[in-house]
Amino acid sequence: MLRRPRRNRSSAAIRGMIRETHLTTDHLIYPFFIVDGKNISEEIHSLPGNFRWSLDRLLPEMEACVKLGLKTFILFPGVAEQLKNKTGTYGYAKNNFYLKAATEIKKRFPQICLISDVAMDPYSSDGHDGLVAEGKILNDETLPILAKMSVAQAAAGFDLLGPSDMMDGRIGWLREALDEEGFTETGIMAYTAKYASAFYGPFRDALDSAPKDEAGIPKDKKTYQMDPANKKEALIEAELDLTEGADFLMVKPALHYLDVIHLLKENFELPIAAYHVSGECAMLTAACQNGWLEFDKAMPEALLSIHRAGADAIITYFAKDYAELVRG
Ligand code: PBG
Fold this sequence. Notes:
Layout (H helix, E strand, L loop, with lengths): L11 H7 L9 E8 L5 E3 L7 E3 L1 H13 L4 E7 L18 H12 L4 E3 L15 E3 L2 E3 L4 H14 L3 E2 L8 H11 L6 E8 L6 H7 L24 H13 L3 E5 L5 H10 L4 E5 L1 H12 L5 H15 L3 E4 L2 H9 L1
Parallel strand pairs: 1-3, 1-4, 1-12, 4-5, 8-9, 9-10, 10-11, 11-12
Antiparallel strand pairs: 2-3, 6-7
């Protein structure tokens, strides 16, 4: 045998020398769920190790994460039911706790990159990402609401906005609204290929944001999120987001869509983000809690796979665990 690939695996030194993928805390984005109030840190039962935080409890937690080397965070609001309505007005209300929290966080940690969520579902009494009328989710009529939300988020100090509703014309519309208000430096991380996935369950538990089971309200998000069977459609979405002015393209979920991550990485020059979603993290955690997998080995392998597939940045509920693990 002339060729023996095993020679290059014979020691840790050789393996390290030829390792093709390196994942550091620079690549990770840590999601946090924030609620109004004080002294709250409520664990999410379907996403162990993750909490609904009030700002006073979140700040010390973020400080610990920053000390571990994490630099980018994405924030999601858990909104009280009585503040939700059909048009999601709380999303840009003056006294909105999520916006105020962002300002506080950026004051305390000016060096971090803070990402928002731009969608109606946390604020919608229908539990949808867009306006609902006559059993339909309206595309264009939702745009002015998202524009107000985006401008309010940029003014609050978010560095990157994350329009996550997978409807049409978002990036161009929001880019223009931001620029008109002078927020030319606020970036947009486009949820380019977000699939109508069954793996968002724990997230919807965390925010109580599932589509409502009532007459006249569509039960799922299949008319706006992508069909899990489709790949070419992701290229169409990416082309649109690129031309409309996105700064990042995102694929979501991540582990079950590594082919899509790879496809976008091969075809586009923009940085690619992947969202390792709540259900994907929860299933690994559950297997580890059962003693069926070893967390310290399975978790980094999962994250490495997403990076190897082509994701420059990974949103993952394991960001802090990974930071602790590599720190030793
Ligand atoms: C909705 C939104 C969802 C997630 C992020 N933003 C849920 C949904 O589309 O219903 C899911 C993230 C996760 O599961 O971790 N704007």
